[in-house]
Specification:
The complex is a heterotrimer of chains A (about 200), B (about 375) and C (about 300).
Chain A (H helix, E strand, L loop, with lengths): L7 H16 L5 E2 L14 H6 L5 E4 L8 H9 L2 E2 L7 E4 L4 H5 L14 E5 L2 E3 L7 E6 L7 E6 L3 H6 L10 E5 L4 E5 L4 E7 L9
Chain B lengths: L8 H17 L8 H7 L1 H11 L4 H10 L4 H14 L15 E6 L28 H25 L8 H4 L4 H7 L28 H9 L3 H12 L9 E16 L6 E17 L10 E9 L3 H16 L6 H8 L2 H9 L6 H22 L1
Antiparallel strand pairs in B: 1-2, 2-3, 3-4
Chain C lengths: L2 H4 L11 H16 L5 E2 L13 H10 L5 E6 L6 H14 L2 E2 L8 E5 L12 E5 L13 H10 L3 H14 L9 E4 L3 E4 L17 E6 L4 E5 L5 E3 L31 E5 L5 E5 L2 H10 L16
Parallel strand pairs in C: 2-3, 2-4, 4-5, 5-8
Antiparallel strand pairs in C: 1-9, 6-7, 6-10, 8-9, 11-12
Classes of the chains: A alpha/beta (about 200), B alpha+beta (about 375), C alpha/beta (about 300).
């Protein structure tokens, strides 16, 4: 039975995907999409899983094409506010300015930094035409990991991760079909490049 | 009964629990009813509500009976019960001036505005142990209860006598207003109305707003506050000079919420509280000697000792010198569950850590011997 | 729709309601994003007392689901009274399966030990923390402590280690050795022995630390540096292995022994035993020193 509200057990499964993806940045994980009505935008999952009364949420104008803020507020009891004060921000095609407006917290209170859910067209561990490649290093990553993203302004991708650690924003990237990858503020995003070749897989 | 090294730790727990429940159930004494606990051990019930941070006499009485009279254990049961209950809203702000007093005294003035109502208190009862023969005492109580029941029935049936409830008398003015009129009080009023800190959500740390400190004290362990107060008035901390009490009140406050459908405030019940205002005669070199400062204390139930300590410590905090650890002590060391839990955790096995300590001592000793040889 | 309707509904009444779980989960995520930083959280009162594992318990209750298998042990021992109590609570509250075998568990809640077994990716270690503040011995003022962590100013800690070395000839820190995590935060490893510090460094598993009484959660993500604080010319020392385990198990030279604890005897001598009892039993079974049929199941489903 799907609806617009996550059950207790579905919340745990979704949280597990969010936690695993954050503790191993750049790896791909699946949300239990069958647990919510398909009309719920994928970027709503972060707040649907984590928010409750007392948590502030916001969506950027592009994401507000659907009534996503009301949807999440009704389902969780969260408070709607503006992007700069949201604890959880839901972003569709965010501009660099919009991403820059999110709360970063401070060295004394890193926990006040925002969590961002950004909609992407696709995610891949392998390069593909039209995807921007990110090289990730830092806690949770043995050596270097590459993550390929389509559908986000490269300037926003460059703004993800470690810039003023421990202040910063923790970001999850969501595809429409419920695949998620995370880039916490501890991750160094060192290179972004547009891939121009497609790797052929040897079978 | 096995302890740590015993395999079957689970069996050991079961055995321990059986001991507790059998002793409780098979006690030679009569079953202890909840109304007896609420009716005859009210101060304990009030203390449990105050330290548990939950207003409900039945829950507190249940906890007190289960904990066999251990107040901190009872408060723990109440708070753990609270953890299982979803919190789905907040009440409207309660105006303390709406208090319906059961007792009100004002030590600062002989005749304050609004009456003093000595009310029910143990303060002036002689501390003489009542050694009336048990049978006589029991009989006396039964007779008195029967007589009262008769009177009440008579009143209800006659419909003649109406007890007048003079609203103004029962909701007296506040002494602080008198001091303000006399321009004797430091004015701490602000035009902002910040949201009160919720210490159940965000743990309070030094630097937290006053609301966080007051909330922490409101559910602190009574003895901890009294001891800390004593340190501050006569002990080594000395952040208090000379305090006179302004208001000491025991009364009921109405609790209201916004009705979800008609969007208007609705009273859902009343809580009984003890409220205290304490007046400090400021005497510090940087303080305004022409004025008093007033501290505030409030706690569930009838617990004057705690509310007075709280009001005193509220001022002590504003007067404390930089570098004093009063705020840190208040916020971090007065919670009964935290302090006693951590204290008693020492009973848990610590042999892994102890072994590591012995190893270091041996190493240091060997090091010293090697150095001298 | 009213707020009551909006509440996510938990299954049978659990020890923690859904909103409490969400509070813990939010703190866990922040902790993972800032490795070693003590995240404040709205710690709930639990059926176990403060100081008795309420923080570790809250984390375990918040993260486990139907497919999880949980191990709970204390000082290395599954059969201990406190561990058995916590394990029962978790099982009854969340309905999860439990085990004593660290290799089978998806979540391991531990008091003061890291498993002797090598854990893998996907496993989560939940450590019970009595005192989360590693700088507690060198600074009393909480505001100053917050500043030190915020600015990465650990000079007082270094001075204290140096003075210890000069005074005693060795660094005498026993358990809970302070470590630098991710090259940024100094962290209290909880009272695990020094023996257990190396497995935390660049581990394949996630470690979560719960301090219920102090209301802090912190974390070490997998593949993260965990470096015990010491000086370039003073190697970090783990507890020396004093004698073979009384069980008769002999570990080949060069292999890592297990952490052992001393059992003083009536006649003044001492016998040594492996602290990790389940690991020890399995090694003995493998070595033919123990008949698996004599190992009894110590649990009964309530």
């Amino acid at each position: 039975m799907t609806g617009t509200r996550l059950s207790g057990s579905a919340s745990q499964v979704a949280f597990d995907a969010l936690m695993r993806s954050l503790s191993e940045p750049g790896t791909l994980h699946r949300l239990p999409t069958g647990q919510l009505d398909p009309s719920v935008p994928s970027i709503a999952w972060l707040a649907m899983t984590l928010a409750d009364v007392g948590i502030s949420i916001a969506a950027n104008p592009a994401a507000q094409r659907t009534p996503i803020e009301a949807l999440v507020a009704d389902a969780t009891g969260a408070t709607i506010t503006d992007l700069s004060r949201a604890w959880i921000a839901m972003l569709d095609q965010p501009t660099p300015a919009e991403f820059a407006s999110l709360a970063r917290g401070s060295a004394i209170e890193p926990e006040l930094g925002a969590r961002a859910a950004i909609a992407v067209e696709s995610l891949s561990l392998l390069p593909a035409q039209g995807l921007v490649g990110l090289e990730l290093t830092g806690p949770g990553i043995p050596g270097v990991r590459s993550l390929f993203v389509k559908g986000v302004d490269p300037a926003v991708l460059a703004a993800l991760g470690r810039h003023e650690f421990p202040a910063g924003v923790d970001t999850w990237l969501f595809t429409p079909d419920g695949t998620v990858a995370a880039i916490p503020r501890s991750t160094t995003v060192s290179t972004t490049f547009l891939s121009t070749t497609t790797e052929q897989e040897n079978n | 009964m096995g302890y740590v090294a015993a395999k079957g730790g689970f069996d050991a727990i079961r055995a321990a629990e059986d001991l507790v429940t059998t002793t409780r159930r098979e006690s030679a004494s009569s079953w202890l009813e909840l109304d007896q606990i609420i009716g005859r051990l009210g101060y304990a019930v009030d203390r449990v509500m105050g330290e548990g941070g939950l207003w409900d006499e039945t829950t507190a009485a249940l906890a007190f009976r289960q904990a066999e009279g251990d107040v901190i254990e009872s408060a723990h049961l109440v708070r753990a019960h609270r953890s299982t209950l979803p919190r789905f809203g907040t009440t409207d702000t309660i105006d303390a001036d709406e208090i319906d007093v059961i007792r009100r005294i004002v030590p600062a003035f002989r005749e304050p505005p609004g009456p003093q109502l000595l009310g029910r208190t143990l303060d002036y009862t002689g501390r003489l142990l009542d050694t009336t023969n048990e049978d006589d005492a029991r009989r006396g109580a039964l007779e008195a209860a029967a007589a009262r029941a008769e009177t009440v029935a008579l009143i209800e049936s006659s419909e003649q006598i109406e007890i007048e409830n003079e609203a103004e008398v029962r909701v007296p003015g506040r002494l602080l207003d008198v001091l303000r009129t006399m321009d004797l009080a430091v004015d701490r009023r602000t035009s902002t109305d910040p949201e009160p800190a919720d210490i159940a959500r965000v743990p309070a740390r030094p630097g937290a707003p006053r609301s966080a400190v007051l909330s922490t004290m409101a559910r602190a362990e009574s003895g901890a506050l009294v001891a800390l107060w004593y340190r501050n008035i006569l002990g080594p901390d000395r952040n208090l000079h000379e305090v006179t009490l302004g208001e000491v009140r025991h009364g009921r406050l109405p609790v209201r919420v916004q009705h979800p459908l008609i969007d208007e405030p609705v009273q859902i019940g009343m809580v009984r509280v003890t409220e205290v205002e304490a007046i400090e005669d400021l005497d510090g070199p940087d303080e305004d000697r022409t004025k008093f400062d007033v501290g505030y204390g409030l706690t569930f139930g009838h617990n004057e000792r705690k509310a007075i300590a709280m009001a005193n410590l509220d001022i002590a905090l504003t007067r404390a010198e930089a570098g004093s650890f009063l705020e840190q002590s208040l916020l971090m060391t007065t919670d009964g569950l935290d302090s006693s839990g951590f204290l008693e955790h020492l009973k848990l096995p610590h042999y892994v850590t102890f072994r590591s300590m012995i190893e270091r001592k041996t190493t240091v000793r060997n090091q010293a011997m090697a150095a001298t040889s | 729709m009213t707020v009551l309707d909006a509440l996510p509904v938990s299954a049978p009444p659990a020890v923690l309601d859904e909103s409490s779980k969400r509070e813990i989960r939010r703190a866990v995520l922040t902790a993972i994003a800032v490795p070693g930083y003590q995240v404040p959280f709205g710690s709930r009162e639990m059926p176990v007392a403060r100081g008795w594992g309420s923080g570790g318990l809250q984390i375990t209750l918040a993260i486990v689901g139907d497919s999880d298998v949980v191990k709970v042990y204390d000082q290395g021992e599954d059969g201990g009274v406190n561990a058995a109590n916590l394990r029962r609570l978790i099982r009854n509250s969340e309905g999860v399966d439990t085990t004593t075998d660290a290799r089978q568990a998806t979540v391991i809640q531990t008091r003061h030990r890291v498993p002797e077994d090598e854990l893998c990716a996907g496993q989560t270690l939940v450590l019970q923390v009595p005192v989360p503040e590693p700088l507690r011995g060198v600074e009393r003022d909480m505001t100053e402590l917050a500043r030190m962590h915020a600015e990465g100013d650990y000079s007082k800690m270094w001075v204290s280690l140096y003075e210890d070395l000069v005074r005693n000839g060795v660094i005498t820190k026993t358990t809970g050795y302070p470590c630098l995590v991710g090259g940024r935060y100094v962290m209290a490893t909880t009272p695990i022995p020094r023996w257990d510090v190396p497995p935390l460094h660049q581990a394949p598993f996630l470690s979560l630390f719960g301090a219920g009484r102090e209301k802090r959660i912190y974390a070490i993500p997998p593949h993260t540096d965990v470096e015990p604080l010491t000086f370039d010319d003073v190697p970090f020392e783990v507890e020396a292995v004093s004698a073979p385990c009384r069980c008769g198990l002999v570990v080949p030279d060069g292999d890592r022994q297990s952490y052992q604890v001393e059992l003083p005897q009536q006649d003044g001598t001492s016998v040594w035993a492996c602290s990790d009892t389940d690991w020890c039993s399995r090694q003995r079974v493998a070595a033919g020193l123990l008949d698996p049929n004599t190992m009894t199941e110590t649990e009964v489903d309530l």
